[in-house]
């Protein structure tokens, strides 16, 4: 059921232009997909990450304060889960998500002007290092974080246009 729900959220998000959804419904959809990230089934975690990615592409590309608040919240929540959650099953889903965020989200300033990509990058890097506490170690979290680091690097190195038409990565 969770996989189907995530697929529905993904489809609703991809059809956002032809099928507008009010803000409260969008928050319910995001909350449902985020809850599915915590599921122990890998297929459901992947479906949830895909749903949130589609959601982010559809709704966080708007130029408004709601989108900026959403960027901060999603990054803060999932970066904290990756670094502090004791259950590896829960960290896995957040590790999948952070690498799939759209470019506009990654270049949004959060937490005192720090770019979002920096927060996501640091969280993913910390997730690739085996934990000192043996009970927190989870190889699948490290695998997901490594795959997400690759996706994040590709997104960042896709280069952002500068004003003079040249391409450059803004670091």
What do you see in this structure?
By secondary structure, the protein is mostly helical. 66% of the residues lie in helices and 5% in strands. The strands form 2 sheets. It has a two-stranded antiparallel sheet with strand order 1-2. It has a two-stranded antiparallel sheet with strand order 3-4. The longest helix is centred in the middle third of the chain and has 20 residues, at 65-84. The chain starts with a helix and ends with a strand.
Distance between the termini: 42 Å
Number of strands: 4
Helix content: 55-70%
Please mark out the parts with pLDDT under 50 across 5 or more consecutive residues, or reply none: none
Strand order of the main beta sheet, please? 1-2
Structural class: mainly alpha
Global geometry: globular
Overall mean pLDDT: 82
Give the biggest sheet: 2 strands, antiparallel
Instruction: Evaluate the radius of gyration.
Output: 16 Å
Number of helices: 8
The H-and-E topology, N to C, reads as HHHHHHEEHHEE
Beta content: under 5%
Give a quick set of tags describing it.
single chain, mainly alpha, 4 strands, globular, two-stranded antiparallel sheet, 171 residues, 8 helices
Short description:
The chain contains 8 helices and 4 strands. The protein has 171 residues and is mostly helical. The mean pLDDT is 82.
Any chance you could write out the topology, listing elements then pairs?
Elements: H1 2-14, H2 23-37, H3 42-59, H4 65-84, H5 88-98, H6 103-106, E1 109-110, E2 114-115, H7 116-128, H8 139-157, E3 160-161, E4 167-168
Antiparallel strand pairs: 1-2, 3-4
Helix pairs in contact: 1-2, 1-3, 2-3, 3-5, 4-5, 4-7, 5-8, 7-8
């Amino acid at each position: 059921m969770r996989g189907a729900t995530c697929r529905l959220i993904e489809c609703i998000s991809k059809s956002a232009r032809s099928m507008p959804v009010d803000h409260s419904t969008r928050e319910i959809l995001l909350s449902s997909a985020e809850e599915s990230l915590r599921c122990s089934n890998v297929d459901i975690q992947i479906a949830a990450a895909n749903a949130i990615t589609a959601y982010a592409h559809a709704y966080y590309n708007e130029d408004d304060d709601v989108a900026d608040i959403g960027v901060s919240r999603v990054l803060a929540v999932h970066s904290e889960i990756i670094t502090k959650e004791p259950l590896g099953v829960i960290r896995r889903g957040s590790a999948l998500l952070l690498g799939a965020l759209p470019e506009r989200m990654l270049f949004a300033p959060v937490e005192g002007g720090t770019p979002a990509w920096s927060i996501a990058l640091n969280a993913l890097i910390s997730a690739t290092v085996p934990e000192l506490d043996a009970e927190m170690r989870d190889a699948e979290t490290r695998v997901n974080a490594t795959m997400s680091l690759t996706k994040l690097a590709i997104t960042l190195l896709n280069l952002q246009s500068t004003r003079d038409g040249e391409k450059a990565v803004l670091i």
